[in-house]
TrEMBL record:
The family this protein is said to belong to: Belongs to the GET4 family.
Protein name: Cytoplasmic protein
InterPro entries per the UniProt record, alphabetical: GET4 (IPR007317), TPR-like_helical_dom_sf (IPR011990)
GO biological process, one term: protein insertion into ER membrane
GO CC annotations on file: cytosol
Organism: Cutaneotrichosporon oleaginosum
Length: 341
C-alpha cells in the first residue's frame, strides 16, 4: 500500500523562516538559505503560489530589518518563480512586487536588480514592461533624486501622468529653468515620438506641463514666451518651437501599415513637411544647438524612418557631411549627451 504524499502547508513552512529573522540579531543568512531551499522544493512540486507567498513574506521582513542583500535576492527569486509559473500582471501581483521595491534602499545595486527582474517578468504583455510598474519605479526613483533611472522608467511607462511627472523632474534637473530648457525638453518629447506607434499623449502632456513650468512667475525663463498661435507657444528658443511643431507633424504621420509610396503620395506628403521642419530648425539652431547633438540626430533619424517611412541615408553620407562641415567651418567633434553643456 503506497504512502500518500502530505500536502505542504504555509503555516508549517513559513514560521521557521520568520523565526530566524526575528532573532536579535537576525540570522539573515540562515533565513535566506532556508527560504530558497523550501521554495525550490515547492516550485518543483507544483506549489508555485505558496513559494511566492513565502518568498514575499521572508523578503519583506528581511528588508524591514535592513538586510538589503538577502531580502532583495529573495525578491528576485520570487519574481522569477512568478514568471516560471505564469503569474499574470494584475493589481495584486504588481502590489506584491512594489511592496518589496518600496522597502529596498536606493543605495547599492539591490533595488536595480529587483526592478530589472520585475520589469522582465512584466514584459510578456508589453515589451518595455508593464506601464503601471514602470510608472511606480519612475516615481520611486524621482522621490530619491535618482533622475537618470527615473527618466527611463517614465519614458517606458508612456502614460499621460508619466509625461507630466517627467516634465516636473526634467525641469528640476535643469535647475528649474536655469539651464537651457530646450535640451531638457528634447529628452522629454523626442523619445515618445520615436516609439512605435508614436506616443502623442505622453509627449503632449509633457510639453504642456513643461511649458507651464517655464512660464511660471518664479521661472528665469518666463520672458522667453512671445505669443500663442494655432496652439503653439512661440518662444525665443528654436528647440522649444521645433518640439511643439514636431508633435503636430507626427500627429499627421502615415497610418500604421501604409507603404512608403502611399505615405509620400505625389507631392511628398507629410514626410516632406517633416524633412523641411527638421532642416529649417537645424539651420536656425546652428552647429552648437541642441538639434545638432549626436543623440538628438539619432532620434530624429529614427522618427524619419520609423514614423514617416523615409529611407535612411545611404552609406558614406556621414563621411561626406563631416568633409563638408570641415570645408565650411562646421564642427567635427562629437556632441555630449542631450542636455550636457
Amino acid at each position: 500500500m503506497s504512502r500518500r504524499t502530505r500536502e505542504p502547508k504555509l503555516d508549517a513552512l513559513l514560521p521557521p523562516i520568520l523565526s530566524l529573522i526575528e532573532q536579535d540579531p537576525p540570522n539573515a543568512y540562515s533565513a535566506h538559505q532556508k527560504a530558497l531551499t523550501t521554495t525550490a522544493r515547492l516550485a518543483k512540486s507544483g506549489h508555485g503560489a505558496m513559494a511566492v507567498e513565502i518568498l514575499s513574506a521572508a523578503a519583506r521582513e528581511l528588508l524591514k530589518r535592513g538586510e538589503a542583500a538577502s531580502g532583495s535576492e529573495l525578491g528576485v527569486r520570487m519574481v522569477e518563480i512568478m514568471g516560471e509559473t505564469g503569474v499574470e500582471v494584475s493589481d495584486q501581483s504588481r502590489a506584491t512586487v512594489t511592496q518589496l521595491l518600496a522597502l529596498t534602499p536606493p543605495a547599492g545595486p539591490w533595488r536595480k536588480k529587483l526592478a530589472d527582474a520585475a520589469v522582465k517578468w512584466s514584459a510578456r504583455a508589453c515589451p518595455a514592461g508593464d506601464p503601471s510598474l514602470n510608472q511606480y519605479l519612475g516615481e520611486l526613483n524621482y522621490k530619491d533624486r535618482l533622475f537618470e533611472p527615473a527618466e527611463q522608467y517614465l519614458l517606458n511607462a508612456g502614460k499621460r501622468d508619466s509625461g507630466t511627472l517627467l516634465a516636473d523632474m526634467l525641469f528640476e534637473w535643469g535647475g528649474k529653468g536655469a539651464e537651457d530648457p530646450g535640451a531638457y525638453a528634447a529628452r522629454g518629447v523626442l523619445p515618445f515620438l520615436a516609439m512605435s506607434p508614436p506616443n502623442i499623449l505622453a509627449a503632449t502632456s509633457f510639453l504642456q506641463r513643461y511649458l507651464s513650468l517655464l512660464s511660471s512667475p518664479s521661472s528665469p525663463q518666463k520672458d522667453i514666451f512671445i505669443l500663442t498661435a494655432q496652439g503653439v507657444q512661440l518662444t525665443t528658443s528654436p528647440t522649444l518651437n521645433f518640439l511643439q511643431l514636431a508633435v503636430l507633424t507626427v500627429q499627421r504621420a502615415p497610418a500604421p501599415g501604409a507603404s512608403a509610396v502611399q505615405a509620400r503620395g505625389m507631392d511628398g506628403g507629410v514626410a516632406r513637411d517633416w524633412q523641411q521642419l527638421v532642416g529649417r530648425y537645424r539651420r536656425i539652431a546652428g552647429n552648437d544647438g541642441v538639434l545638432a547633438q549626436k543623440e538628438v540626430l539619432e532620434v530624429l533619424d529614427a522618427i524619419s524612418t520609423g514614423v514617416f517611412l523615409i529611407p535612411p541615408p545611404r552609406g558614406g553620407n556621414d563621411m561626406l557631411q563631416s568633409l563638408m562641415g570641415s570645408l565650411f567651418g562646421g564642427g567635427g567633434g562629437g556632441m555630449g549627451a542631450i542636455g550636457a553643456r
